[in-house]
Design a protein that fits this description.
It is a single chain. By secondary structure, the chain is α/β, with parallel strands linked by helices. The chain has 14 helices and 13 strands. A five-stranded parallel sheet has the order 7-6-5-8-9, sandwiched between helices. Helix 5 packs across helix 11. Bound molecules: xanthosine-5'-monophosphate. The site of xanthosine-5'-monophosphate has 13 residues, from loops.
């Protein structure tokens, strides 16, 4: 049984820091609202509780619960929070067994029992989170796991091939690729408004997934790559894109092995499960894919140009050894035309913006200062290799106020 410290969330800026610091010491920690009832605390059976807010706001019964030996009070203004946390973890004899190796072993065992002889379905997006979920479940139940990858036609260049290849190499489960690109393009024809594009893509994805899922009558569980920031954000804002949707509609039991992990923990877990480094360090990619980077109406021709420009951006970042230092890098096809000259002839063609940011949590982000040499090469290659593009600009906007995606 894993020892847990509950961190009561008073909404202070230090809360997540405290949580991370405890986990870095090897002890499992979980964020709960400061309004949590004593009854709920009893069910969670923590070995300790951390408070960085006013005791008087907390249910007084909590302090009387038997078995909760340690109440740790940390000031927000504490000069050395990390040192303070390290010292109480050492002094109070915590076991420090929270490692991704243990997490992997526990998760495989737990889902092997929970899923039993049933079948489980999992959508693969090409991202790290869904791949790690599939890795856990393929080790837990093997070919009872049915993975579905929906090709929306809005993926990066070579993405479908690399997901297929990675799957065959690293998983012992069933894999089904569904080519729905025509259907997505048809539904997006003439649509320019970003939220409407997202809505159409989200709905059609659910339709395609549902239809495919029905081909597996023995499936009882749906696995999803929800991670902890999705959960915290959805509680805070109810707005996050990855939460909600599929499960209610399909009526499956939801399996979310990563629900309590941060992104860097998911990456470590991926390595423990045998996924290759370059796969677990992939930049995140939005659900609606290239559609939110192809501004205005999405057409096959525009997607082809964007795909080619985007591949050049990523290649050059990798070539310069900057992939791990950056958090997201991509091209955006702008709905503007400008005048240029090629081989002495006037052109009137599209512009591409390069976006490259560094961030820890994707809630805020800084534009990344790519070296001039890298930008020069990207620009020259895009203009030279991508038909219909005669101008490249670099996005130097931070989030906030700009978002990372352009739509
Ligand atoms: P923004 O553009 O809001 O993006 O600064 C923050 C992070 O979220 C990703 N993103 C999405 N992910 N569906 C997703 O699954 C979406 O509709 C979506 N929009 C943005 C974005 O790529 C960045 O990592």
């Amino acid at each position: 049984m894993q020892e847990t410290i509950l961190v009561l969330d008073f909404g202070t800026p230090a809360t997540q820091l405290i949580l991370r610091c405890i986990r870095d010491c090897g002890v499992h920690s979980q964020l709960v609202p400061y309004t949590i009832s004593a009854e709920k605390v009893r069910q969670l059976k923590p070995k300790g509780i951390v408070l960085d807010g006013d005791d008087k706001l907390v249910d007084p019964e909590i302090f009387k619960i038997e078995g909760v030996g340690n109440i740790h009070r940390v000031g927000e203004f504490l000069p050395d929070l990390e040192l303070h946390i390290r010292s109480f973890i050492e002094c109070d004899g915590y076991q420090c067994t929270w490692t991704m190796k243990n997490f992997a072993a526990d998760a495989i065992e737990r889902y092997r029992n929970e899923i039993g002889d049933d079948e489980v379905i999992c959508g693969l997006s090409g991202g790290v989170d869904s791949a790690v979920v599939a890795a856990i479940l393929s080790k837990a139940v093997g070919r009872q796991l049915k993975c579905i990858c929906v090709d929306s036609g809005m993926m990066r260049k070579g993405e479908i091939e690399s997901v297929t290849e990675a799957f065959q190499k690293y998983f012992d489960a069933e894999f089904h690729m569904v080519d729905a690109s025509e259907g997505f393009l048809k539904r997006l024809a003439g649509v320019e408004e970003p939220q409407e594009k997202r809505r159409i893509i989200g709905h059609y994805f659910i339709d395609v997934f549902t239809e495919t899922a029905q081909k597996f009558p023995n499936v009882r569980h749906l696995a999803q790559g929800t991670i902890y920031p999705d959960v915290i954000e959805s509680v805070a804002t109810k707005l996050h894109h990855n939460v909600g949707g599929l499960p209610e509609k399909l009526g499956f039991n939801l399996v979310e092995p990563l629900r309590e992990l941060f992104k860097d923990e998911v990456r470590k877990l991926g390595i423990e499960l045998g996924l290759p480094e370059d796969f677990v360090w992939r930049h995140p990619f939005p659900g609606p894919g290239l559609a939110v980077r192809c501004l205005g109406e999405v057409t096959r021709e525009k997607l082809d140009s964007l795909c080619a420009a985007d591949a050049i951006v990523v290649e050059e970042i990798q070539q310069a050894g900057l992939y791990r230092q950056t958090s997201q890098a991509f091209a955006v096809l702008l709905p503007v035309k400008s005048v240029g000259v090629t081989d002495g002839k006037r052109t009137y063609d599209n512009a591409v913006a390069i976006r490259c940011v560094a961030t820890d949590d994707f809630m805020t982000a800084d534009w990344f200062p790519l070296p001039a040499e890298v930008l020069r090469k990207m620009s020259a290659r895009i203009i030279d290799e991508v038909p219909g593009v005669n101008r490249v600009v670099y996005d130097i906007s931070n989030k906030p106020p700009a978002t990372i995606e352009w739509e």
